[in-house]
Every structure is written in structure tokens, then in C-alpha cells.
Write a structure and sequence with these properties.
The chain is α/β, with parallel strands linked by helices and about 290 residues long. The chain has nine helices and 16 strands.
Amino acid sequence: MQKMIEKAGTLIEALPFIKKFSGKTFVIKYGGAAQVDGQLKEAFAQDIVLLNYIGIHPVIVHGGGPKISEMMKKLGKEPAFIHGQRVTDAETMDIVEMVLGGLINKEIVALINTHGGKAIGLSGKDGFMIKAEKKLTKKRSPETGEDEIIDLGLVGQVKSIDPEIVIKLQKEDFVTVISPIGIGPNGETLNINADYVASAVASALKAEKLILVTDVPGVKDKETVIPSLNARKALGMIDKGTVSGGMIPKVQACLQALEGGVGKTHIVDGRQPHCLLLEIFTNEGIGTEIVG
């Protein structure tokens, strides 16, 4: 009986959050272990279906870097990176599009549908949803000590988002699953960082939340996870180097989303089963929330 009472208590704790967020849009960047481990994939799909059933509109933007590298090696092509960004020639772009749009996207859609949801997969090229431009990066020359412009190939950054197709699908209760691929000014296909795509999509939809599902417990100060921080403090942590490496684009994506009108942003540990439900529907949460 005690276990049953505890279950009832969990539902009661979730009730005010359900009432608050019903009818709202949550944009979720899906990556890391939650996208690879079988049990975590099942738990993620269940979370998404539950959110949709109680009236929340989840929109998923997924990554897929490790799977792309794996496929490249199978096809005899060695992945190359500069400052953590994939160098993407035309042949690599074909592999990226095949893996993201043809394998990963459809697997996520199938998982959600299998658990009783109604999902549909899109590329950023569909309906000209994600218009992009080439992204150039700088690298310090060891010979001259000057910054040099590095051309990463078909790597892009978001120029604009047209959310019309997503909004129409939401009206029909579809969960939209988006591959982070954009279309350039000359019709070329461009590979874009999924964190920044999720941020831009959340801003365009004026989402209630942007949630980044990652392989870390949240933003840390030394070894302690910070439950909540504001934009000013987050920027200061980047400047001081407390936030570094792969966490920088995630925090930057959150800050850009807040500037774009998103209500609140979260970085959560996707290695924890049902991480979305734990972050959204409990008072404590399990990750870091970043607010304006």
C-alpha cells in the first residue's frame, strides 16, 4: 500500500506542472547516450508520448555525430575535425544526410510511433524550414601567430527558421522530428550543429522550453552541478573557463534561445532514464536550468 501511496504522491507533484505546460511547445535536442543505448531510447520515446498525450507539444531536433563517423569509416572515409567541427566535403555531406535523415531520424520516428505516439520526420530542407549559410572558423597559424580563416566545407549556421510546417503538424497532434540539415543560398545542403538548430527552432516557435539532452549531469562548478543559473552568470562561467569544451555550444545555445524569447532552458543528463519527466515534473529536477 505504501508504494501505491508514493505513486499517487508523484502524480500529485506533477499535477501543477501538467496544468502549467498543457498547450505549450517544448523543443528537445536529443543526443548522446540516450540516442544509442536501447533502454534509454525506449524511455525517451515513452517520455515524448506522455508529454504529447497530456497536451504538451514536443518538437525534437536530433544529432548523430558518432553514427556519421561510424558510417564514414565503413565506407572507407576517415572523419576529420577542426576545433571539434566536422570537415564536410560533398561526399561526406552525402553520408551525413543519409545517416541523419535516412537512419537516425526514421528510427526516432518509429520508436515514438511504436509507443503509441504520432511522429513524423523532417529535414531542415523540407519546406525550406532551415535556411542556412556557410560557417567559417578561425585557426591560429603556428607560423605567423595570426588567425587564419578555415573553410570547413559544407558546414552551415542557421540564417532563418520558417516554423510554418511544424505549426501545421502540431495542430494535427504530430510530434515533429527534425534533422539538423539546412539549405544554403544556392540550394546546397549544409550540415549544422544540432544544439544551435534546436535553439533557433525554439526561438522561432517561441517555445516554453528548450531542453538539451546530453551526457553530462548539467553545468558544473568544480564537481557540483548547478541547479539553476541566469544568463549573466552563465556568460561569466564561459569567460572564466568554468564552462569549457563541448559544454560551451550547449550553454551558448541556451543563451541564444532565451534572447529569442524562449521561456526557460535546461541541460539534462540523458543517461538517466526518463530524464525529461524528472526534469519537467518534479520540484527538484535533475539538471541545470538557465533562465534570462
